[in-house]
Amino acid sequence: MNRLALPFCFLLLLTTMYQSPGASAQMVPSRLIPFRHGTRWGYADQNRRLVLPLRYDEAGPFIGEVAWVREGTLYGYIDGAGNPVTPVQYTRASNFYRGRATVEQGGETFDINLSGQRLTEPAPPELEEEPLEHGDVVRKDGKVGFRFTVGTATVAPTYDEVRENYNGLLFVRQGTKWGVINSKGKLVQPVAFDAIQLKGNLVLPQVQRGGLWGYLDEEGSTLTEVRYQQASPFLGDIARVVLPNGQTGYINANGQEFFE
């Protein structure tokens, strides 16, 4: 699949592909975050102060100090000062990943580097990462629990499924509902969610209830209300969301919204 700036469902899948289960909880705050006011986009700092003006029809996150922007139906790339890295000339454009982005121009799809130059060599293979496990699943009478290898905490085998997020949280399921347990074995979110995203960046988990999505923080506490129609995994310290009215925007790792 091409890593292209497509409708939100494609962006959600792509950011999921690029986040490993063991992603570090230590996030470097983004200097600039896409900011939407009405239908126009610019970039703001972490305090929501506008830094780059509202001149775009859509804007993507900065990766390696380069971000895609859309004007009309075409995409281009800018640097952190708002200067063009490429002309606005692509019919599709992706976030940068490992120093390269995929674009489409004239019906042809190819990769470019952070300077906007076309790349001819194929992308290097993905690195295999072994997630750090924090314990073992225990089973009894058809139910499962968990025994942490660090400390003495245990989770009684009363659940139908236990999944680890490799950052100290457990996602537990009873029937069709999910809850969250912390590294001390305490249930920090009741077994009431319809779904928990089990792929992508699990440091700040996405949870679903009643057809809407929200986020938890790295301790399993509520980061945002469950209020978004769609919610992407965090890319660094920002995540793209879609509101029930179909409008898109970004939030940071504190749950602060960068749209109005």
From TrEMBL:
Task: Name the InterPro entries for this protein.
Answer: WG_beta_rep
Cleaved signal peptide residues: 1-25
Keywords per UniProt = Signal
Q: Which residues form a coiled coil?
A: none
Q: What is this protein called?
A: WG containing repeat-containing protein
Look up and give the organism this protein is from.
Hymenobacter mucosus
